[in-house]
């Protein structure tokens, strides 16, 4: 690994100051050459320990001959070089605590771990992988993500596909680098977001309760196999985003909990440390060494694995001292508030550091609060992320879509309110794993109506999501209408593709993604008010909305019309900003997608009938439970249509 070194006085100072952003070059197990021989240098931070030893299968787990030395004036940093150890050797730290106990701990900075249910760390040399993604990285540096398309496919690697359901046999990183990546390219997505792949002991934690922040889980192979996966993504034009969990960690004995016999990575005060909702422990953001550990972890994934971005999980739980806690466990900060001031400063520091080294990184906050300026720069008072998941949009839309269409007119604000704040932050619109598990049902199964209407409702939801400002994210299985909710121990129900409507839903999502990529109006001005204009936000009686998405060039502008009832409107009039001839360029009701075939096959010519505050309007057929996209094809019709009619039509 480039830059690995024995900790010197400056490194020790920076680590304890909380600004050593590449501390993984110092800590952990590093394979090094000394003359003609090979040694492994072990380094660990354990300030409360009375003694630390390295134990493993190389010494029959007896560390008497491998005592680590406390570095002078290091604040509890221990180090030891052991010659002639092979890669793959298992090891742990045997920590003798101040109160006389002996505990065995996995290496917090280990690059590789024993396959579950084993809990040891493995010696691993990250050097030597030959990357082939230079062109991707150069191109990424020339483009702003804000005005580029971003359609994210969220994946849980263990359950996307399995080689065998019966034997719970998983595909490897290298196998997924072909099958999954080819699929994502075929479906028209731009990014893969992986649920946490840091080492974790329990499959059903989905990686959100980690014991090895620097180790790509051994479930799917070695770290270099994961490098191959990322490399393959980049060579096929797909970005990679990792789900990352700095808010809490699990209590498993081999992990970070009371690492050296006392609270170290967690706060001393149990009220601050405990996350009772999840049975985990919070990181202590008052400790600068925790800052060095966590910020280095993001740098590690970006430097060593060329990761493009990080989705920071559960930001809401970090912002509040009392998130998910019963009242008797509540605490206050020094100013009397509930804000976790240390965590807030950490998030600002994290984003400042990451963008300082990787200015084109994606730093996404999964935040369910109304905390202001999440995606504003730190020097302007913000948290410094460049994207935030729009949880409000997600909650409102799913609440609305579950309603019987006959009742939707009474809840019309649920599909329009998001536009009141759509440009306050740089948003990602998520339909994630959290919405299709724990009895919430799949997206398709949430929908009301008969069999046909469930698919039509799902299509209009996706069509509306594509037109709505913000980048897009869909959890695996949603693209073909997985009917059961996510079964986190089984792979997706791929057999459903043999059924006509699921196959057509699959075709629909591929076509919708392709359409999205081809239409600059849908992503060039995602985060600017100038990229959006209402036509008709208030037709609640018919549950129809119409709006304009604008690109940098006027010729790219699109009109989006969405009908959230199963009623066909054969002569629905909308105002338009420019007279001319309009064509239907996408329709979710196309029979190829499972629709009824209602649409506008002929060009639509504008008329000088004022409507919706515009001087001109046009009439179109609006299909049932459908999203229709229109584009102006000519500046003016050959023979301008005049009308003696004045005023508004009944659906104004």
The proportion of residues in beta strands is 15-25%
Rg on CA atoms, Å: 28 Å
Major sheet: arrangement of strands: 9-12-15-19-20-21-22-23
Question: What distance lies between the first and last C-alpha atoms, to the nearest angstrom?
Answer: 65 Å
Shape: elongated
Please report the total strand number as a whole number.
31
**Mean pLDDT score, rounded?**
94
Q: Major sheet, described briefly?
A: 8 strands, parallel, barrel
> Which oligomeric form is depicted?
single chain
Poorly predicted residue ranges: 640-652
Helix percent reads 10-25%
Protein model, in words:
It is a single chain. 23% of the residues lie in helices and 23% in strands. β24 (532-539) and β25 form a beta hairpin. The strands form eight sheets. It has an eight-stranded parallel β-barrel. The protein is elongated, with a radius of gyration of 28 Å. It has 652 residues and is of the alpha/beta class.
Quick gist of this model?
The chain is α/β, with parallel strands linked by helices. It contains 14 helices and 31 strands. The protein has an eight-stranded parallel barrel.
Please tag this protein with its features:
652 residues; 14 helices; 23% strand; single chain; 31 strands; 6-stranded antiparallel sheet; alpha/beta
Task: Tell me the layout of helices and strands.
Layout: H1 9-17, E1 28-34, E2 37-45, E3 51-56, E4 69-70, E5 77-83, E6 90-96, E7 102-105, E8 121-122, H2 134-140, E9 151-155, H3 157-160, E10 162-164, E11 169-170, H4 173-187, E12 191-194, E13 198-199, E14 212-216, H5 223-235, E15 239-244, E16 248-249, H6 270-273, E17 274-275, E18 280-282, H7 288-305, E19 309-312, H8 315-319, H9 341-357, E20 362-365, E21 387-389, H10 391-401, H11 413-416, E22 427-431, H12 443-446, H13 451-467, E23 471-475, H14 500-518, E24 532-539, E25 544-549, E26 558-563, E27 569-576, E28 581-587, E29 604-605, E30 616-622, E31 626-634
Parallel strand pairs: 9-12, 9-23, 12-15, 15-19, 19-20, 20-21, 21-22, 22-23
Antiparallel strand pairs: 1-2, 2-5, 3-6, 4-5, 6-7, 6-8, 10-11, 13-14, 16-18, 17-18, 24-25, 25-26, 26-31, 27-30, 28-29, 28-31
């Amino acid at each position: 690994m480039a830059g690995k070194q024995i900790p010197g006085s400056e490194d020790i100072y920076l680590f304890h100051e909380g600004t050593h952003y590449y501390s993984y070059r110092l800590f952990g197990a590093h394979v090094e050459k000394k003359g003609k021989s090979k040694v492994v240098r072990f380094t660990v931070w354990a300030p409360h320990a009375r003694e630390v030893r390295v134990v493993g299968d190389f010494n029959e787990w007896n560390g008497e001959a491998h005592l680590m030395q406390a570095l002078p004036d290091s604040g509890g940093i221990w180090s030891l070089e052991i010659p002639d150890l092979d890669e793959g050797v298992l090891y742990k730290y045997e920590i003798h605590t101040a109160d006389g106990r002996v505990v065995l701990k996995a290496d917090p900075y280990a690059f590789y771990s024993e396959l579950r249910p084993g809990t040891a760390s493995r010696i691993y040399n990250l050097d030597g992988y030959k990357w082939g993604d230079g062109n991707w990285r150069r191109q990424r540096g020339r483009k702003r993500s804000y005005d580029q398309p971003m359609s994210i496919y969220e994946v849980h690697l263990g359950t996307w596909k399995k080689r065998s359901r019966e034997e719970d046999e998983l595909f490897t990183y290298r196998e997924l680098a072909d099958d999954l990546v080819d699929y994502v390219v075929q479906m028209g997505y731009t990014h893969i977001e992986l649920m946490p792949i840091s080492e974790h002991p329990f499959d059903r934690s989905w990686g959100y309760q980690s014991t090895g922040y620097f180790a790509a889980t051994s479930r799917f192979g070695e770290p270099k196999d994961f490098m191959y996966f990322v490399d393959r993504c980049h060579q096929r034009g797909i970005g990679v985003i990792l789900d990352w969990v700095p808010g809490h960690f699990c209590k498993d004995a081999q992990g970070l909990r009371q690492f050296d016999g006392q609270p170290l990575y967690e706060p001393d005060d149990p009220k601050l440390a405990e996350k009772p909702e999840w049975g985990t422990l919070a990181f202590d953001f008052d400790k600068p060494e925790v800052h060095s550990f966590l910020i280095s972890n993001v740098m590690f994934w970006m430097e060593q694995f060329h990761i493009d971005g990080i989705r920071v999980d559960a930001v809401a739980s970090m912002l509040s001292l009392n998130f998910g806690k019963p009242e008797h466990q509540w605490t206050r900060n020094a100013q009397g508030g509930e804000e976790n001031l240390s965590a807030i400063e950490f998030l600002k520091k994290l984003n400042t550091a990451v963008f300082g080294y990787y200015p084109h990184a994606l730093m996404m906050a999964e935040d369910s609060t109304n905390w202001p300026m999440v995606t504003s720069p730190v020097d302007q008072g913000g948290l410094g992320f460049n994207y935030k998941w729009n949880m409000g949009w997600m909650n409102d839309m799913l609440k609305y879509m579950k309603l019987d269409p006959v009742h939707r007119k009474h809840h019309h604000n649920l599909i329009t309110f998001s536009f009141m704040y759509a440009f306050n932050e740089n948003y990602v619109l998520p339909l994630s794993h959290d919405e299709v598990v724990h009895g919430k049902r799949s997206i398709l199964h949430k929908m009301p109506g008969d069999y046909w209407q469930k698919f039509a409702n799902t299509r209009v939801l996706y069509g509306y999501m594509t037109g709505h400002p913000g980048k897009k994210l869909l959890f695996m299985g949603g693209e073909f209408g997985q009917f059961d909710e996510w079964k986190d121990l089984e792979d997706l129900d791929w057999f459903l593709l043999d059924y006509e409507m699921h196959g057509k839903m699959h075709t629909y999502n591929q076509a919708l993604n392709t359409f999205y990529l081809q239409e600059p109006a849908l992503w060039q001005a995602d985060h600017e008010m100038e990229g959006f204009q209402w036509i008709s936000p208030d037709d609640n009686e018919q549950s129809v909305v119409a709006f304009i998405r604008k690109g940098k060039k006027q010729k790219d502008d699109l009109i989006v019309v969405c009908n959230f009832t199963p009623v066909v409107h054969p002569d629905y009039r909308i105002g338009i900003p420019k007279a001319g001839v309009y064509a239907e360029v996408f329709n979710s009701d196309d029979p190829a997608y499972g629709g009824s075939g209602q649409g506008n096959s002929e060009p639509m010519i504008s008329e000088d009938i004022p409507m919706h505050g515009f001087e001109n309007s046009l009439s179109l057929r609006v299909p049932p439970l459908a999203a229709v996209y229109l584009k102006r094809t000519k500046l003016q019709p050959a023979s301008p249509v005049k009308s003696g009619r004045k005023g508004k039509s009944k659906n104004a």
